[in-house]
Amino acid sequence: MTDQSTLAQAVNDLLLLAPHVELAGHTPGRITFRLKLSALSVAQSLDSARLAKELPGILKTDLKLFSRTVVIDYDPARLPPAVWEELGALGADPARLETARARLTGILEGRTA
């Protein structure tokens, strides 16, 4: 079970990366983001395997710095595909970061869908 502070940190880590990615492909259950050059310093300090352990619904992550991609396998029943689309759009609209944080945290805590 993930405690609230661990969950909050994992959500924060994911949201730190979100403004620095572009959506490269998405089918329910698997999303691929292309990392912008600005993401490289953030991605290097990110423990992507920890996200799979600490964020309910993330099954597996595969971060490839050389090809500048991250593939996330997730449970679409736990994390709706629209959430990922919203995260992928944060680069174009960073003002929505806190809204995305609240929505993602609410879903993961079982408060919203």
Notes on the protein architecture:
- This protein has a single domain, classed as Gyrase A, domain 2.
- It has a 4-stranded antiparallel beta sheet.
- Helix 1 packs antiparallel against helix 5.
- The protein is built from 5 helices and 4 strands.
- The two termini are 20 Å apart.
- Helix content is 42%, strand content 23%.
- It is of the alpha+beta class.
- The model has no long low-confidence stretch (mean pLDDT 86).
Class from secondary-structure proportions: alpha+beta
Strand content: 15-25%
Arrangement of strands in the largest sheet:
1-2-4-3
Mean residue pLDDT: 86
Regions with little confidence, pLDDT below 50 for 5+ residues:
none
Architecture, CATH level 2? 2-Layer Sandwich
User: What is the CATH T-level topology?
Assistant: Gyrase A, domain 2
Helix-strand topology string: HEEHHEEHH
Give the tally of β-strands: 4
- As a whole number of angstroms, the C-alpha radius of gyration is 13 Å
Helix content: 40-55%
C-alpha termini separation: 20 Å
Q: Any idea how many domains?
A: 1
Q: In DSSP terms, counting alpha (H) and pi (I) runs of 4 or more, how many helices?
A: 5
How do you describe this structure in short?
The chain contains 5 helices and 4 strands; from the N terminus they run αββααββαα.
Describe how the helices and strands are arranged.
Layout: H1 4-17, E1 21-27, E2 30-35, H2 40-45, H3 48-54, E3 58-64, E4 69-74, H4 81-88, H5 97-108
Antiparallel strand pairs: 1-2, 2-4, 3-4
